[in-house]
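From the pipeline queue, job 12 of 40. The input is one protein chain; the requested action is below.

Action: predict structure.
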Amino acid sequence: MLRFDHLTLRRGTKVLFEDADLTIHPGWRVGLTGANGTGKSSLFALLQGELGADQGECSLPSDWVIAHVAQEVEASDRSALDYVMDGDEELRRLQAAVAEAEAAQDGSRLGELHARLDAIDAWTAESRAGRLLHGLGFKPGQEVAPMASFSGGWRMRLNLAKALMCRSDLLLLDEPTNHLDLEAVLWLEQWLGGYPGTLLLISHDRDFLDRVVTHVAHIERGGMTLYTGNYSTFEQARAEALAQQQSQHERQQREIAHMERFVERFRAKATKARQAQSRLKALERMTRVAPAHADSPFRFSFRAPHRLPDPLLKLDDVNAGYGEPAVLQGVELSLHPGERLGLLGPNGAGKSTLIRLMAGTLMPLAGDREPAPDLKVGYFAQHQLEQLDSQASPLLHLQRLDEKAREQELRDFLGGFGFHGDQALDPVGPFSGGEKARLVLGLLVYQRPNLLLLDEPTNHLDMDMRHALEQALQGFEGALVLVSHDRHMLRSVCDELLLVADGQAVEFDGDLEDYRAWLAAREKAAEAARDATREVGEQSAASRKARRRDEAEQRRRQKPLRDKVARLEKAHARLEEERASLEADLADPGLYEADGKARLQELLGRQAQVNRELEDVEAQWMEACEALEQAD
């Protein structure tokens, strides 16, 4: 089991948490929650041996294998499949050992290695890696593509697949859904549900936590508390605890006020002085109950757009894509103020293409895009985080949008997005992904759009910021189109769902659970089609496979005989060479003199022995050749 015993962890002078006592049993799936900066990732670093405990101990079994998702990946020519298979480190060690044993012709060692390979089911490793890639959204054929051909987001998926490939005892996942679409998130939920080891998961996705974890470890105000149940159960338990704490605080404050009034009133009276002193000492000894605090550090709302034309945007029989064939065909869509539209669809089906078409950054291949004259688009996409001016501060970014605004007004606005004090003046280059995402959202909000297009806006955002964004979007007066793998966000802010699949964008008649069922049915149909194609291929190639199988079996049976023939031929050649050498020596006249008699006898004896060995080898060679002919 994993144990924290009076564990204290600091970063610099800041105490992240202290005196934490926690026991996590094998097989538990624990969600690690808490605001950004409370120490979740630092705890992962501690478990991986990258940090040491400042006080207390962190212990786990010495033979546990720990898997985690690397943050970087090499841009090499190795295939995606090979890279993912590297996650099973024991498999790779065994494969290297087999190669060494074969080179050394160590049969005993080979037997031991093959027994271990059987024990770890090594023969299915390649298919297991392929299934991981498929589940995380890679298309058939991409498993052989070189690592260098994938973008950063897809390389992170490869890192995730590599971590899942490891036959680990402890799996550490830090925001694993950030680079996934909804389809891959649903697959990952199912995979983690069958994971046999112990899982520690950092995530700000409520639905994902609800479906995956069995316990929640919450870090708050320097403490760590373990709750049994999923995230919804934790939220309810925490809310009840906060309410109880607040009630105790208020009751204690009333008691303190009463005692203080008594002391002030009677401490000067001789008859009451002893009672007043007693109450004063009681006040000093009292353990104060802190007020409950669960307020979000973020507060903002969308100001009313300057204009709200109706409709805001129309797409009339539009084809869209990046050349022929089009990704989307015949799209019909009209967006009106107040509409809340969530886009669903498999990876690569065209959701981001449709968003870019609405934003005007992608022109139609055919059909008409008809924006209203007063359309003002607020478009959020992940690439915009990297387009921020790394040398400029949040305040300067905002001042560039509104040069006439007073600085204090802009700083107050930025405070609603968590940029307080000097951070509003710091350059954004060193900011985290979450801080950059908050700034981009703030810049969008400030510009008063009447059409919001949000493509995965929750990546890198913590729970508090996601909740603040949900609240703000619910009050937004314009139209909203949202792509997100965060189902809680989709349910909270979207009234309609649009399914983007098979080149079409049509209204989806159902909810997110119906979409899960739709994906499952689609995958089942695709698997059936693949099986049918495979069966046809197998039938057409049946005779070739049978012939190859027979030929392989024949080669297997003949191999010992062929090896024997080759060995006898080598022995025969060696003996013939020795006999020729003896004959050359016996041709020396000096051997037949009186002093060469002993040498002569020695050579004649060896010649007779070589002739006998040659006869024996030739006989064996003939028998082996006849046996080989009969085996054909």
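Job complete. The chain has a mean pLDDT of 85.
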